[in-house]
């Protein structure tokens, strides 16, 4: 196992000293890059990229060739688990992900298979090993999964949703069935993430994209409790290093203390939460990842640099623990040069806050 040449992302997650603030971008591999669009057109569709370890590796590496990123993230999707459970994932242009066989009844939930990630999601673990070999210790590799709640929204709604009426109907009229599903998903996520760590992932992240549509009580019982189960169930050390886990609940800014209570290493925060406030509330317990509005990349370079400086100043001096990122995925119509301005600005202007 090659040792890491650049470990500042892992160090920041553990709130250790770093020379400059590490940075990566959610959805850093994707449609805003012309080289991604070219490869995708060649491959035919998005899932073909995910299912080929070589292509997934190539796409993972694309943003690293352009920018001085401090981490790589596995190129895959959160919906691989429901697909492997037999729901039939497909993508309709402009409409996002869909399932051929969404879950409608308790008996369908009860009949969901238990996954063996090494068999049912072998293309993902093979992609992780291929990427890890290709990276050769240049930067750490992040493995990820969706949170049980977020996966369940797609599985029950049958795709993306605005109202979440089907899953909320189940939540309030038949909570036992929903808990049965969330429990099965938590078990699947634990074995999936552990297989990613075994294959070479050095940090983990849970995407709870839709936790923020819940009331505080429902968030706790239907999303956070299951993420806590995952935090407790995943491998936290591998090859002599801690494997940090980051929880990201979009629109979850009011629950930072609860999220820190799960025992995670870091919390991802979107742009609706003030970084200085977040640091005061939980910065002594966990690292914080974020939090520039991805739409800021539409602004001109000098404004992007100013916004980076503003967020760095908000996080401020002191015991570290900041991983710079966008507050959500990069938009597909952003100019690639602007992403470069962002990454370089984080490195250039953060030096003053360290050492
Ligand atoms: O961050 C990365 O670079 C790693 C790759 C990654 C993708 N999806 C690639 C992808 C990650 C971490 C995800 C997570 C994901 N997928 C989430 C959680 C994060 C978030 O954004 O909140 C969710 C909700 C999904 C489900 C999903 N997959 C959606 C909503 C979409 C977009 C559909 C569309 O047409 O806009 C996808 C497809 C997807 N996943 C793409 C990429 C690069 C676009 C595929 C393409 O058209 O080429």
TrEMBL record:
CDD domains according to UniProt: URO-D
Superkingdom of this protein's organism: Bacteria
Gene3D superfamilies: 3.20.20.210
The protein's annotated pathway: Porphyrin-containing compound metabolism; protoporphyrin-IX biosynthesis; coproporphyrinogen-III from 5-aminolevulinate: step 4/4
Domain Uroporphyrinogen decarboxylase (URO-D): 22-31, 142-158
Site positions per UniProt: Transition state stabilizer: 77
Keywords assigned: Cytoplasm, Decarboxylase, Lyase, Porphyrin biosynthesis
Main location: cytoplasm
Subcellular location field: Cytoplasm
An example Gene Ontology molecular-function term: uroporphyrinogen decarboxylase activity
Catalyzed reaction equations: uroporphyrinogen III + 4 H(+) = coproporphyrinogen III + 4 CO2
Residues noted as binding substrate in the record, renumbered to the chain: 27-31, 77, 154, 209, 328
Enzyme class: lyase
EC number: 4.1.1.37
Family: Belongs to the uroporphyrinogen decarboxylase family.
Function statement: Catalyzes the decarboxylation of four acetate groups of uroporphyrinogen-III to yield coproporphyrinogen-III.
Subunit structure: Homodimer.
PANTHER family in alphabetical order: METHYLTETRAHYDROFOLATE:HOMOCYSTEINE METHYLTRANSFERASE RELATED (PTHR21091), UROPORPHYRINOGEN DECARBOXYLASE (PTHR21091:SF169)
HAMAP family listed in its UniProt record: URO_D (MF_00218)
Name assigned to this protein: Uroporphyrinogen decarboxylase
UniProt organism field: Celerinatantimonas yamalensis
Gene giving rise to this polypeptide: hemE
């Amino acid at each position: 196992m090659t040792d890491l040449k650049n470990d500042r992302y892992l160090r920041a997650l553990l709130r250790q000293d770093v020379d400059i603030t590490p940075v990566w971008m959610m959805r850093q591999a994707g449609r805003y890059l012309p080289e991604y669009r070219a490869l995708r057109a060649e491959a035919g569709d998005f899932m073909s990229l995910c299912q080929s370890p070589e292509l997934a590796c190539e796409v993972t590496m694309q943003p690293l060739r352009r920018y001085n990123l401090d981490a790589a993230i596995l190129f895959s999707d959160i919906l691989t688990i429901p697909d492997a459970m037999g729901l039939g994932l497909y993508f309709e242009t402009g409409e996002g992900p869909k399932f051929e066989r969404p879950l409608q009844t308790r008996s369908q939930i009860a009949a969901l298979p238990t996954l063996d990630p090494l068999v049912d999601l072998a293309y993902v673990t093979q992609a992780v090993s291929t990427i890890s070999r290709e990276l050769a210790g240049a930067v750490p590799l992040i493995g990820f999964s969706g949170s049980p709640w977020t996966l369940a929204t797609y599985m029950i709604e049958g795709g993306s949703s605005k109202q979440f009426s089907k899953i909320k109907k189940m939540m309030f009229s038949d909570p036992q069935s929903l808990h049965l599903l969330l429990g099965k998903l938590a078990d699947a996520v634990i074995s999936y993430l552990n297989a990613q760590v075994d294959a070479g992932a050095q940090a983990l992240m849970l995407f709870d994209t839709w936790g923020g549509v819940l009331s505080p009580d429902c968030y706790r019982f239907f999303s956070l409790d299951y993420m806590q189960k995952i935090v407790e169930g995943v491998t936290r050390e591998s090859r002599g290093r801690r494997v940090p886990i980051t929880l990201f609940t979009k629109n979850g800014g009011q629950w930072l203390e609860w999220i820190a209570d799960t025992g995670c290493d870091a919390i991802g925060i979107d742009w609706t939460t003030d970084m200085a406030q977040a640091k005061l509330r939980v910065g002594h317990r966990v690292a914080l990842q974020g939090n520039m509005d991805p739409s800021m990349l539409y602004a001109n370079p000098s404004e992007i640099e100013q916004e980076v400086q503003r967020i760095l100043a908000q996080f401020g001096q002191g015991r570290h623990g900041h991983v710079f990122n966008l507050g959500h995925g990069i938009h597909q119509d952003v100019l690639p040069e602007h992403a470069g301005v962002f990454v370089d600005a984080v490195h250039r202007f953060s030096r003053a806050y360290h050492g």
